[in-house]
Design brief:
161 residues, 3 strands, mainly alpha, elongated, 7% strand, 7 helices, three-stranded antiparallel sheet
Length: 161
């Protein structure tokens, strides 16, 4: 039962990392028309994926945020799924179970859930000048990967008892 769920979680995570996650629609309040005349490119909407956000931060040399987002939104979730795959193929191996327990502990530090929640909160808040953020389908797919990963973890825990 867990392998199909791990597969679904893996596919959803892969798509969720590269699919459009959010679009930013910049506005300058009552001066939007002037900004569109002076610098039309700065008023274009921009769509980001999770990888796109990380790349954009790297281009801005914001290495601290690149490392934080990469570790907690990419490396930990991918590592957790790798441990699930390992556990699913060697259920009787005590080493696989200890890896699973380690992944459970590290999974608590995964910011995947926090990342999705923060995107929802940002999208609900109107930013200065009327700028707003619209969540795209990638956010939902990433959220589903988080949910399927949590369900997988619960199923693995139940099958070990």
């Amino acid at each position: 039962m867990t392998r199909p769920l791990i597969l679904v979680s893996s596919v959803l995570l892969g798509i969720g990392l590269v699919a459009p996650t959010m679009t930013i629609y910049p506005k300058a309040g009552e001066f939007t028309w002037l900004m569109e005349l002076m610098d039309p490119e700065s008023m274009d909407s921009v769509t980001y994926s999770i990888f796109g956000i990380i790349v954009e931060l790297a281009e801005m040399n914001d290495w601290f945020m690149v490392v934080i987002l990469s570790i907690f939104s990419v490396v930990f979730p991918v590592g957790k799924i790798c441990v699930f795959w390992n556990h699913s193929f060697s259920t009787q191996d005590p080493k696989a179970f200890s890896l699973y327990n380690g992944a459970k502990i590290l999974g608590k530090f995964s910011m995947a859930e926090v990342f999705v929640l923060s995107l929802f909160l940002i999208s609900m808040k109107t930013l200065p000048g009327g700028t707003f953020v619209k969540l795209e389908y990638g956010c939902g797919i990433y959220f589903l990967s988080v949910i399927t990963s949590m369900i997988t973890s619960l199923l693995i825990k139940r099958t070990r008892k």
